[in-house]
Every structure is written in C-alpha cells, then in structure tokens.
Design a protein that fits this description.
15 strands; 14 helices; alpha/beta; 3-stranded antiparallel β-sheet
Length: about 400
C-alpha cells in the first residue's frame, strides 16, 4: 500500500495551542485524571451562560432556519451588524458590506484565501493569536511578525513594524483587544498604525472579537473608524466571547475603505462565500437580539463582576510567584506571564507546559505557540471561578518553586 501523506501546503501551518500539550491532557482525562484547563477561552465549561433572550430568539426561529441562507448571511443579522458599527461612528458599513461566518476563524481564512498570492507578506503581531499566522501560510502567503513591547504594555513597536515592510508586504493584522496579552490600543496608536498602512498601501485586517470585554475604563476604538475612507479595512467580530456562545459559531466581517478599488478582491470573497453555501443559519438569528438587547457582559467586567475579579486574582497571585511577572490585561480573557530566564532557564516551553500538566494537572498554553520569540512566557485563561483559579495558580507556584529544567526531548 502507498503511504498517504498530508499536503505540502501544511508544511508551514502550525496551531500549537491545540497541539501535543492539549492532546496529552485529553489522554490523561481519558485515564481518569482531573485537569484544570487554563488554556482556551471557551466560556461555557466555566459556568458563563448565554443571555436567555439570545437562546430564546434562536429557538423561536428554528422553524425558519431549515434552509440555506444568503451566502453573506440573513438580512436581519447583517442589518444588526451594520447598525452596530454605524452607532459607533462608522457610517460607511452597509448591509452588503457585512458577511456572516461560522465564527471569525472561518472568515479570517476565507478573506486571506481571497486576497493573497504566493509569497505575499502579511504583518502579524508577536505574540499573536496563531490562527492568523497559520491562515496566512495556508493561503500561500508569508507571515512576518512585528514585535509588541512588553515593557510598554504590549503595544506594537512601530519602528520594528515599519522596518519589516518590503515590496511584497500586502497586509497588516491588528488584534485589539489583544489575544494573548490583553492589551488595548489607544486612538493614538491606531492612528499611527493606519498612517503606516496608508503610506504603504496595506490592507488592514482588524480582529476585534473581544471589543466588549474591557476593564478599568479601557476604551475600545474600532480600527475602521480611524482608518477612514482611504485604508481598505476588514473588521472581524462575533458573539462567541461577549455573549458566551462559542459553540454557536456566529461571527462576522465588515468591509470599509476604498471599496471601489477592491471590487476584484470582494468578488473573490463572494466566490468563496458562495462555495461554502452559507453560515450556520440558526445561530444567525441570535445576532440581532444579542447586539440590540441588554449587554450582560457589563455585569461581568465592571466592579464586582466575575471576570474582573478573576482577572485581578490571577494577576495578583502570579506576580507574587518569585521570578514571574505579568502585565495587567486591559481587555480579553488572558494574561501572558513572563518567566524570568535567570530563575527558570527554560529551553523548550512546550516541554515545560507538558511537565506542568503531568505533575500538577494544570493545562496552560506555552508562549511560543503564539509566535513569541523566546521560551519564557505562557498564556493563562482566567475563566475558572475564583476558588479553582486560586488552586491552579497555587499549583503553578508550587511547581515553579522546585523547578528543574528537564532534558530536551529527542527529535523523532
């Protein structure tokens, strides 16, 4: 029999946050071990429930959701998204500029497939949400990572970013609020980023899935608002995080800027949207109710709210561990702590995460999985309720107190 191998297109496609460490955790669970999962921003397992009105609206519309929809999405959902942005000062987003997808992830992949030619370069923050890097590579492009400065609250290093632009650079990814660091970008920072995009004729891809999850008075500003009419901008957001419905897979993409010069690109997006027929129709019926109704996420992020309190607890406990420091998250669901290399000489942070999992039954995501350059960070999700979260961080501290670097694994 011949050996059947994966496509060569996957040679540079990595998604390590669901790689060997998570697979090891799944194996341990099958053997009866109880794992505390601090690795993925999946809200439902931690008791964060969707607003009842959103669920009821979806249920009510099930009889009307049995057939295919418009490839771009049902009209009511696209109207709600359009109005969501218009109320925030972006008047140029019409219903036909909105595409509904099976989560933001599908739309990221779809838009990059429609845009990139072989070897086109896209600027992506480091650290990043790794789907961006993987999707650029899968589309035949070349991911180029620009640094974010930890000492400056994980803000983009503009000098480093601009130094990486070449004649092949076609796009710029902005993740705001940022995953994995929790950074939120100011209007001044976004203005400077858009000046660079404008100067070099870059298409901007703005990932804003955490736009409603903000702390301590942080303000989210839509990239498209700052970009204006002369920077082609694709904005991505959805229901999964703020409305606690990750499994609904209800995301959207909105296009702004000089669309008349992007007609061919948009035609490619329409082609790919039609090829997948349509997004999940029942979940689309939840979008109008979610965006137009009571914003229950505010109860979780304001003083006394569960997310805010758990963020503060994790931040405080992590910074009390010798050799560990972390910037406070202004948004999203994560902290990205640093392990002092002088205290913890880690050579392979995936091995570190595996050893922590096996010894303490704690599942984290190692920092290099987010295309961070050094094995000295990890991402922690602060979704578990406070007692469980405190137990998990205490176990991390116990592990680090007796940490000894393991021998590197032998190559296969």
């Amino acid at each position: 029999m011949p050996e059947y191998r994966q496509s060569s297109k996957l040679a540079n496609v990595l998604y390590d946050i669901r790689g060997p460490v998570m697979q090891a955790a799944q194996q341990m669970e099958s053997e009866g071990h109880r794992i505390i999962k601090l690795n993925i921003g999946n809200t439902a397992p931690f008791g964060f429930e969707a607003p009842e009105a959103v669920l009821m609206d979806m249920i009510k519309n099930l009889p009307n959701a049995q057939g295919y929809a418009d490839a771009r999405g049902i009209y009511s959902a696209r109207t709600a998204v359009s109005q969501h942005y218009q109320l925030r000062g972006i008047q140029t987003i019409g219903v036909d500029d909105v595409y509904i997808g099976n989560g933001v992830s599908e739309l990221i992949t779809l838009s990059l497939q429609a845009f990139l030619n072989q070897g086109d370069e896209v600027l992506i923050p480091s650290p990043d949400y790794p789907l961006w890097t993987a999707s650029v590579a899968l589309a035949g492009g070349t991911p180029v990572h620009y640094s974010c400065d930890e000492e400056d609250g994980w803000q983009p290093d503009l000098e480093d970013l601009e130094s990486r632009i070449t004649p092949n650079t076609k796009g710029l990814v902005v993740i705001n609020p940022n995953n994995p660091t929790g950074a939120v970008y100011s209007r001044e920072m976004l203005t400077k980023l858009m000046q660079i995009a404008r100067k070099h004729d870059l298409v901007v891809f703005s990932d804003e899935i955490y736009e409603k999850i903000l702390y301590d008075g942080a303000e989210h500003i839509h990239t498209a608002e700052v970009a204006g009419d002369d920077v082609l901008t694709l904005t991505f957001s959805g229901l999964s995080k703020a409305y606690r419905v990750c499994g609904f897979r209800a995301g959207w993409m909105a296009i702004t800027g000089p669309k008349k010069y992007a007609s061919d690109f948009i035609e490619g997006i329409n082609l790919l949207a039609n090829m997948r027929l349509c997004a999940n129709v029942p979940a689309q019926h939840a979008i109008q109710t979610a965006l137009g109704g009571y914003q229950s996420i505010n109860d979780l992020i304001n003083p006394g709210g569960r997310l805010l309190e758990q963020r503060n607890l994790a931040y405080s406990m992590l910074n009390e561990i010798p050799g560990v420091s972390t910037q406070q998250a202004e948004g999203a669901l994560y902290l990205f702590p640093k392990l002092d290399p002088e205290v913890y000489p880690i050579e392979n942070d995936e091995d570190f995460a595996l050893d922590l999992l096996r010894s303490q039954k704690i599942l984290i995501s190692h920092g290099t999985a987010f295309n961070w350059r050094n094995p000295d960070h990890f991402r922690l999700v602060f979704l578990p309720e406070d007692t469980l979260l405190a137990e998990a961080v205490s176990r991390i501290g116990d592990y680090l107190s007796s940490y000894r670097p393991s021998k590197p694994r032998k190559a296969d």
